[in-house]
């Protein structure tokens, strides 16, 4: 039985595989993989965030179990470029980074925001979220979403994808969510249209900002529209 962990409750449970000396940067992540208290190797990966440290540890544990080459594992992690729509940098214009991510349920949103904070430490994080999935539009998950955005400096909530499918009792209440974020000291707004979101953001964005756009759909092409508006 193998166990692995970093940055969660498992820290106090002494997993067999762990990470120490973890360093995040815009270029990626570095850490020492540790097995049963002994250093296994220095891992470098372009992936970001605590959850990807755990993913790397899982890969290493499986690779060791099947006898894979340690050098091959380290090279694979060092050169792996992830997949589209997972913290995918769509572009950087006027010093503003625009990121696309598929995150749509509360845990994924929270982990993605944390990973973005870790990768771009010290920079203002603007989170733009389209409640498009079934989970994202249901009222019973509203409080979970409010908590999930705790790491963002600014939050913009777009309109529900199919509001006609929900009732006052079953749908999230954007105004309540915005009020809760503002009580936390955040700048927060409910702006239904992607085009209106872009128009709202352009005067406020400044060099060094990171705009994290999260949706499990196309979101009206907002990523390119924002980059084009920044360039214009």
What does this structure look like?
The mean pLDDT is 93. This protein has eight helices and ten strands. Strand 5 (88-93) and strand 6 (96-101) form a beta hairpin. The chain has 232 residues and is an alpha/beta fold. The chain is 34% helix and 25% strand. The strands form two sheets. A six-stranded mixed β-sheet has the order 5-6-10-7-8-9, sandwiched between helices. Strands 1-2-3-4 form a four-stranded mixed β-sheet. It starts with a strand and ends with a helix. The chain is globular, with a radius of gyration of 19 Å. It has two domains: 4-78, no CATH class; 88-231, Protein-Tyrosine Phosphatase, Chain A, CATH 3.90.190.
Structure, briefly:
The protein has 232 residues and is an alpha/beta fold.
Task: Name its key features.
alpha/beta, 8 helices, 232 residues, 6-stranded mixed sheet, single chain, 2 domains, 4-stranded mixed sheet
Number of domains: 2
Name of the CATH superfamily of the largest domain: Mur ligase, C-terminal domain
In the predicted model, the low-confidence regions spanning at least 5 consecutive residues are: none
CATH domain fold name of the largest domain? Protein-Tyrosine Phosphatase, Chain A
Write the SSE topology:
Layout: E1 4-5, E2 17-25, E3 28-35, E4 38-45, H1 50-65, H2 70-79, E5 88-93, E6 96-101, H3 106-119, E7 125-129, H4 134-137, H5 142-148, E8 154-157, H6 174-183, E9 187-190, H7 194-201, E10 210-214, H8 222-231
Parallel strand pairs: 1-2, 6-10, 7-8, 7-10, 8-9
Antiparallel strand pairs: 2-3, 3-4, 5-6
Helix pairs in contact: 3-5, 7-8
């Amino acid at each position: 039985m193998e166990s692995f962990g970093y940055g969660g409750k498992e820290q106090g449970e002494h997993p067999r595989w762990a990470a120490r000396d973890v360093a995040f940067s815009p270029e990626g992540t570095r850490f020492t993989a540790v097995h049963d208290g002994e250093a296994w190797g220095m891992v470098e990966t372009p992936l970001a965030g605590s959850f990807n440290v755990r993913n790397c540890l899982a890969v290493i544990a499986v690779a060791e179990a099947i006898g894979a080459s340690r050098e091959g594992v380290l090279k694979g992690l060092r050169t792996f470029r992830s997949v589209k729509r997972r913290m995918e940098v769509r572009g950087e214009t006027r010093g503003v980074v625009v990121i696309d991510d598929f995150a749509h349920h509360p845990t994924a949103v929270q982990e993605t925001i944390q990973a973005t904070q870790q990768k771009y430490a010290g920079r203002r994080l603007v989170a733009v979220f389209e409640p498009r999935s079934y989970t994202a539009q249901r009222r019973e998950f509203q409080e979970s979403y409010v908590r999930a955005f705790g790491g963002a400096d600014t939050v913009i909530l777009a309109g529900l994808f199919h509001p006609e499918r929900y009732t006052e009792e079953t749908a999230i209440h954007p105004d309540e969510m915005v009020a809760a974020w503002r009580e936390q000291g955040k700048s927060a707004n409910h702006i239904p249209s992607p085009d209106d979101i872009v128009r709202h953001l352009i005067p406020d964005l400044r060099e060094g900002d990171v705009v994290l756009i999260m949706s499990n759909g196309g979101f009206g092409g907002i990523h390119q529209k924002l980059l084009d508006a920044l360039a214009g």
